[in-house]
Amino acid sequence: MAHVTEPGGGAPGRADGELEVRVAQWRAHVGRSPAMSPGDVDELEAHLRDQLDDLRAAGLTDDEAFLVAVRRLGAVDALSAEYAREHGDRLWKQLVLAPPGAGAGRRRLRRAVLLAVGAALAVQVLRLLGGTLGEVVVAGLAPVVVLPFLAALVGAGREDGERLGARWLVVTAPFVAGAALVLLPPWAEGSSTQVLVALHLPVVLWAAVGYALVGGRWRSPSARMDVVRATGEWVVYYALIALGGGVLVGATVLLLAPLGDDVVEQVLLWLVPSGAAGAVVVAAWLVEAKQSVVENMAPVLTAVFTPLFAVVLTASATVYALTGLAADFDRDLLLGFDLLLLVVLGLVLYALSAQRPDRRPGATDVVRLVAVVAALVLDALVLVALLGRVGDLGLTPNRVAALGLNGVLLVDLLVAAALAAGFLGGRVRADRLARWQTSYLPVLVAWAALVLLVLPPVFGYR
User: What is the average pLDDT across 420-446?
Assistant: First the structure.
């Protein structure tokens, strides 16, 4: 090694001004990986500075030298993954136990635990008030009282100090507005519009959490893809926690059964809601803790589930199109198909989040196109069925919301199918499809906000 650096500071005098700031930012980014010890980061920084010296001596500017040096050194994700494989024993100790020297990891864990406890207590307060508020109001307020703790976790340390107050105001405003929207209007208890608010409010609040996650850089396509990637991994971790929680609940029921049903019921009333709320925060901490440490789960999950969904969607679309059964879709079936379409779009987005923008087409892209086209046909059948219901029975809040959602999904699927076909034909780069999907996310959020703000007063809160 040609140079030795001081931990955290680098070698003084070898770079100054903006270049030194960039090196410090790069070092901080690498150091966030639990797989990296301070000594590892020092060694990587020494290699980076060696490259910088050589490139600057060759006549490159500071900016050019930094970009080329980082490129030569390799993507931070790949380096972290390599270190994780070589130091697997150290990784899990740092990830969970946070030994001495991993102060940042200990602070993140401590913050996550406190926020998870706060979310668990908040949902219990809401449950205790449920008798006076009503079930639908409690369901609508649940994300309002739980997701702020998630936003506090993912948004911590993302700000650079500039316009900090304005950014957190943007994050906070949807939660305040959501609480007012659930509590203040003259709802008819259990009305369609009230249920629609409870269903669509989490979408808007999740967008606020995503805004906090990326430090306000919502206009950046790469930042929106970071939200997609984090959301997909959060879903996986939450599902795993839920499976473990299910085992815990079963064991609790078994152990407490001799004490009587009343005791079991009271314990579960505290255990299940609190566990579900706390797991929201814990799953996000796991996403952050494993960031750039283990292999991304997106390729594995999408490789398994995309073909399965492609088969199911293709078979369903073919059967319904050929038999004419689409005209007999009932409300529950239409809702199920909408959820299925959203899952397919989620799979497509999650897959794109882990793929290189300059890659070549492969078999998975063919399967993805089949899934998107089948979803497009199914969406068209659902739209026809909905229009038929409107013609026969008139407009209702549920039908307007369903028509709007399926119209929004139809546009998304049409463009996605065209871009996927163009990519397979060599006319479109892979990153075009990713850019389209991330740029369309605000449209989905805007539709959810429209349902929240417009439909209830138009239909008299019924």
Answer: 87
| Cα–Cα distance list, 224 to 51, 172, 347 (Å) | 32, 19, 15
pLDDT at 273: 93
User: Of 361, 360, 371, whose CA–CA distance to 417 is shortest?
Assistant: 371
Reported as a pLDDT band with limits 50, 70 and 90, residue 282 is very high
Structure tokens at 226: 């970071």
Q: How far apart are CA 361 and CA 430, in angstroms?
A: 8
Q: What are 336's two structure tokens? A: 């199920």
Note the pLDDT tens digit of each residue in 352-395.
766 666 678 888 888 888 888 888 888 888 888 888 888 777 88
* Rounded Cα gap, residues 250 and 223, in angstroms: 40
Write out the chain in H/E/C secondary structure: CCCCCECCCECCCCCCHHHHHHHHHHHHHHHCCCCCCHHHHHHHHHHHHHHHHHHHHCCCCHHHHHHHHHHHHCCHHHHHHHHHHHCHHHHHHHHHHCCCCCHHHHHHHHHHHHHHHHHHHHHHHHHHCHHHHCHHHHHHHHHHHHHHHHHHHHHCCCCCCCCHHHHHHHHHHHHHHHHHHHHCCCCCCCCHHHHHHHHHHHHHHHHHHHHHHCCCCCCCHHHHHHHHHHHHHHHHHHHHHHHHHHHHHHHHHHHHHHHCHHHHHHHHHHHHHHHHHHHHHHHHHHHHHCCCCCCCCHHHHHHHHHHHHHHHHHHHHHHHHHHCHHHHCCHHHHHHHHHHHHHHHHHHHHHHCCCCCCCCCCHHHHHHHHHHHHHHHHHHHHHHHHHHHHHHHCCCHHHHHHHHHHHHHHHHHHHHHHHHHHHHCCCCCHHHHHHHHHHHHHHHHHHHHHHHHCHHHHCCCC
> What are the residues facing 6 on neighbouring strands?
10
The model's pLDDT over 298-308, given as tens digits with 9 standing for 90+, comes to: 666 777 788 88
Q: What is the pLDDT of residue 267?
A: 87
Model confidence band, residue 179 (pLDDT cutoffs 50, 70, 90): very high
Return the half-sphere exposure (C-beta side, CA atoms, 13 A cut-off) of residue 444: 20
Q: What is the pLDDT of residue 43?
A: 78
Q: Quote the pTM value.
A: 0.74
